[in-house]
Amino acid sequence: MGMVWAIASAIGPVLGGVFTSKVTWRWCFYVNLPISGAGMAILVFVLKLHNPRTPIRKGLAAVDWLGSLTVIGGTLMILLGLELGGVSQPWSSATVICLLVFGVVTAGLFVLVEWKVAEFPIIPLRIFSSLSSIASLGVCAVQSFVFISGSYYLPLYFQAVLGASPLLSGLYALPFALSLSGISALTGLFIRKTGKYLPCILFGMATMTLGFGLFIDLEQELNLTKVILYQIVAGLGVGPNFQAPLIALQSTVLPRDIGSATGTFGFTRQLFTSISVVVGGVVFQNQMQNQYPTLVEELGPKTASLLSGHNAASNVAAVAELQGREGEIARGAYLKALRTMYILYVAFSGLGLVMSLFVGSRKLSKDHEEQKTGLEAMRRANADAGGGRRGWRGGKKDDKEEGKDSEAVRQTFESTTDEEKGIELGGGDRLTGENRAGDGPGASTK
């Protein structure tokens, strides 16, 4: 699944360039309709789940509506505040301040709701009771934050600085897409064969830091060797951590929490991908705005206004129309802004490398475990654990019980046989040993 996500995310900009050049940019959105429709139709026929009959009213009542509302509201306000700040609104404006402050407050209310109110929280806080779990989610956040800058802002470099067309820009980005897709597939095979995920995480974070650091060295003129080689290094760093941190996270939670942990992982990935696009855009636009006086002096106020602030990313075509010294100045301004932006991403990547040192190490085996679904099964699990509103460590079993449960990892690389009935919230690779991972760097079991 990680490889599928990696391929789709990396190939998307390439297809976007094709659609923009040959048809219309609207096809970047139209293409989702038939693909999503086909996917839904396939699921109807092939997805077989243990699905106990639950009355609609009881099912709706069990949904964590308040948690959903607060997390969506808080996320939107924070993202919008970051998007507006320093671009269309000054950071000191009431609009930006209110969005950021109330966004943080709403996010705090979400934590309170999950801790004290929700019977079936969408993100149980007990997931964060292990240092290894927190580190795994941190690696996911940083990898997502840094990865999307390659897919999103490398085409801007190709078009604005190198003068490539959207289609050629997509072709230039292929080394990044192919390398991360290939290493993502190899990572899955490695984990399946060895049962070890930590080496993949450490290798990925270190190589990603190196690769995105190399992007700072990209030149104003086309150097095809650097363009290809730097992208391959960055892709080899990004690819391993599409899946490995998820396996690490699933290995530290109880079987009944694997579904919630997986959802939290996906939410973290999407959230920090969105934040990255916004933050990277803010840094780029502010850097272009800082160069406005120079651009006015060299290009005149009319052209300078097209290439500064929030107009810069949308007026790449204007750069291609500039000739001689004017074109060099404009392309140099874009390159300088992009370099500053990638310094930010390298710093975050280094932070992720430090976080990866705190991911616990456990060797996986291939035993299978089933978990039942349904409201009654969930209530029994909460009752056995002492209630659904136990806070950060609610429902945590003692070491002996956890050893029996083996804290199974969701079935990621192994499929079950037809005789193995039921929904698998805790199925898949089972862990060996009795000690929990997550007690710090190098935690391991026999």
Automatic annotation (TrEMBL):
It comes from the Eukaryota. This is Major facilitator superfamily domain-containing protein. One of its GO terms (molecular function) is transmembrane transporter activity. Residues 1-364 form the Major facilitator superfamily (MFS) profile domain. The chain crosses the membrane at residues 30-47, 59-82, 94-115, 127-150, 170-190, 197-216, 261-284, 342-360. Its main location: membrane. Pfam families: MFS_1. One of its GO terms (cellular component) is plasma membrane. Residues 370-446 are annotated as: Disordered. It is a multi-pass membrane protein. InterPro entries: MFS, MFS_dom, MFS_trans_sf. Gene3D superfamilies: MFS general substrate transporter like domains, Multidrug resistance protein D. Belongs to the major facilitator superfamily. TCR/Tet family. It comes from Rhypophila decipiens. Keywords: Membrane, Transmembrane, Transmembrane helix, Transport.
